């Protein structure tokens, strides 16, 4: 009996593992087709400076619409990374984010900064620097209007090469930020070695900042740390006015979250900017 039980559970296990793998392969194949057919779309989430009430930036967020609704990036970005599709997809994202930046700069938002999420696999790719510099040149966007969001994970791969590449990107004039700050487990010493402009405080610390004393203490400490290092702080996942009030008192400069705006498709973004002309930075 023992053997047959083990045997049948083994079969069930291998079936479900096989199912998971073939499902991944199927989604990856659909993604490849969707990329070729240009079915993916960029959304942009506005970022607000809460000290002087101006719209300072936009985060570029990829969307994959299908017949059955949107497939979330947390599901397909890892598959794009695994399969290598993130390289052509990442280039498409960079070029189209730059095109949007160029459009808005020409509309008078000359100081707008458009942020692009960079996967570790992209950052490690030998052509990454040329791809980014190429996208800037092709779209005629000044480098200071583009921000690259990297995670602490990127930094941990190969420290010496990472430092070199970050300095090269900074020398071009690009803005550099650390995404999901506080969730990685790398040493804080990288903050003084790397030419970083901004820390994006992870949303998990923000959601309960008004009710959880520990979260509030962590955010307060990160804000102080960032300020003492001369970095800009932005809080992600700001959903309520209470979150904003606390962050403002702490001296956090910028927020991003549903409270101010959800990520928007281009037409809605332009409407949003039009309706919030008073939040435009004076040129
Ligand atoms: P992320 O870069 O940390 O992006 C922030 C995520 O939080 C986005 O989810 C955004 O829609 C969501 N968000 C913004 N404000 C709020 C809020 O107030 N409350 C809540 N609950 N969520 C909020 P999204 O668009 O689903 O993206 C998830 C992750 O997928 C991103 O996290 C990023 O790691 C990755 N991703 C998205 N677009 C790209 C891309 O173009 N390239 C790469 N490499 N990764 C991307
Ligand atoms: Mg991000
Ligand atoms: Mg984040
Ligand atoms: Mg992230």
Automatic annotation (TrEMBL):
<feature type="domain" description="EAL">
    <location>
        <begin position="24"/>
        <end position="277"/>
    </location>
</feature>
<protein>
    <recommendedName>
        <fullName>EAL domain-containing protein</fullName>
    </recommendedName>
</protein>
């Amino acid at each position: 009996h023992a053997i047959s039980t083990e045997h049948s559970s083994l079969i069930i296990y291998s079936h479900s593992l096989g199912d998971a793998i073939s499902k991944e392969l199927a989604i990856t194949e659909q993604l490849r087709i969707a990329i070729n057919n240009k079915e993916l779309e960029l959304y942009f989430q506005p970022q607000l400076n809460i000290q002087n009430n101006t719209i300072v930036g936009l985060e570029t967020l990829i969307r994959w619409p299908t017949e059955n609704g949107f497939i979330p990036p947390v599901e397909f970005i890892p598959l794009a990374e695994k399969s290598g599709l993130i390289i052509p997809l990442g280039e498409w994202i960079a070029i189209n984010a730059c095109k949007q930046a160029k459009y808005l700069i020409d509309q008078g938002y000359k100081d707008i900064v458009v942020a692009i999420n960079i996967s570790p696999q992209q950052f490690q790719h030998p052509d990454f620097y040329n791809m980014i510099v190429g996208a800037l040149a092709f779209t005629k966007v000044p480098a200071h209007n583009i921000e690259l969001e990297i995670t602490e994970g990127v930094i941990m791969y190969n420290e010496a090469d990472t430092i070199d590449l970050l300095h090269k990107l900074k020398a071009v004039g690009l803005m550099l930020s650390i995404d999901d700050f506080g969730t990685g487990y790398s040493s804080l010493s990288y903050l003084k070695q790397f030419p970083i402009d901004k820390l994006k405080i992870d949303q998990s610390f923000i959601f309960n900042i008004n009710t959880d004393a520990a979260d509030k203490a962590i955010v307060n400490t990160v804000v102080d740390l960032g300020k003492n290092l001369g970095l800009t702080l932005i809080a992600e996942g700001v959903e309520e006015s209470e979150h904003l009030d606390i962050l403002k008192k702490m001296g956090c400069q910028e927020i991003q979250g549903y409270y101010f705006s959800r990520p928007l498709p281009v037409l809605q973004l332009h409407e949003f900017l039009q309706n919030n002309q008073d939040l435009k930075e004076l040129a």
